[in-house]
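for the recovery benchmark. tokens below, seq after
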């Protein structure tokens, strides 16, 4: 049987397809065998390997599970993120890979609603604004919204993680996209707070110097109880798994929660802003 020669240098997608074939060949598997483990047909596997079909995030995650690469440096999910979102800050695609496996997620955000809680309309306004500023292309804007929707779906796979979210008051006071966008976005926050596996708190302006963070911070607890921290500025992102670096951030996060409004008071503030009565 003739086998198509692959050119991994042709494009990032071709490189991913060529590596998929290589990993399959190393295990002595046929396309139908890998496809059966992933839930895809042999034709779909072939199309990805030869670059005729673009691998989706779901495809890459299933490939990682079948090939035993989930959470490793060689994960196809990581390659997909680098390929599709190279314009994102360094460390963020890798962070998202960990986020999809976390058993606890702790977020702190300033100025905008955290991505995992954004409505598609809210996210679209933000990326369209970036296009107008010339910082990203329209194609990148579309990819970012698609990526966000897939990222939001990841924690819903299997057992949902416990999510702790602290937002600076500026996140709900800063109106994005007008009332038609902000209203449903605030409603989504209230719905999020009503779930049994979430905790939503607002860090009020009155917290003043007691606020321990001046930048957004993400903290993940993984199934083995190790932790990952991700923090970013306007131009840089940093992923850290060293205990000596992560534990001080966890302590600061607990201090932040203690000084923030309780969830009931936080929800009241969100509802007040939604009614236009700050």
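predicted aa per position
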């Amino acid at each position: 049987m003739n086998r198509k020669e692959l050119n991994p240098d042709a494009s990032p997608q071709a490189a991913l397809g060529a590596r998929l074939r290589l990993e399959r060949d190393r295990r002595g598997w046929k396309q139908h065998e890998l496809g059966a483990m992933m839930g895809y047909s042999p034709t779909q596997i072939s199309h990805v390997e030869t670059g005729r079909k673009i691998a989706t995030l779901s495809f890459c995650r299933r490939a990682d599970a079948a090939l035993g690469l989930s959470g490793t440096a060689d994960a196809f999910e990581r390659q997909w993120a680098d390929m599709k979102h190279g314009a994102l800050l360094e460390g963020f695609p890798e962070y998202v890979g960990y986020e999809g496996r976390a058993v606890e997620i702790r977020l702190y955000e300033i100025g905008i609603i955290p991505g995992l809680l954004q409505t598609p309309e809210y996210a679209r306004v933000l990326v369209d604004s970036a296009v107008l500023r010339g910082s990203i292309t329209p194609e990148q804007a579309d990819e970012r919204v698609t990526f966000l929707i897939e990222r939001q779906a990841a924690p819903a796979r299997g057992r949902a993680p416990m999510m702790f979210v602290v937002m600076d008051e500026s996140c709900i006071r800063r109106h994005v996209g007008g009332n038609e966008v902000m209203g449903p976005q605030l409603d989504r926050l209230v719905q999020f707070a009503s779930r049994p596996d979430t905790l939503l708190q607002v860090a009020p302006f009155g917290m003043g110097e007691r606020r321990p963070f001046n930048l957004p911070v993400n903290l993940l607890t993984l199934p083995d109880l190790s932790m990952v921290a991700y923090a970013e500025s306007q131009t840089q992102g940093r992923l850290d798994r060293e205990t000596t670096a992560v534990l001080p951030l966890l302590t600061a996060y607990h201090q932040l929660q203690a000084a923030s409004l309780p969830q009931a008071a936080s929800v009241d503030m969100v509802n007040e802003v939604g009614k236009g009565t700050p």
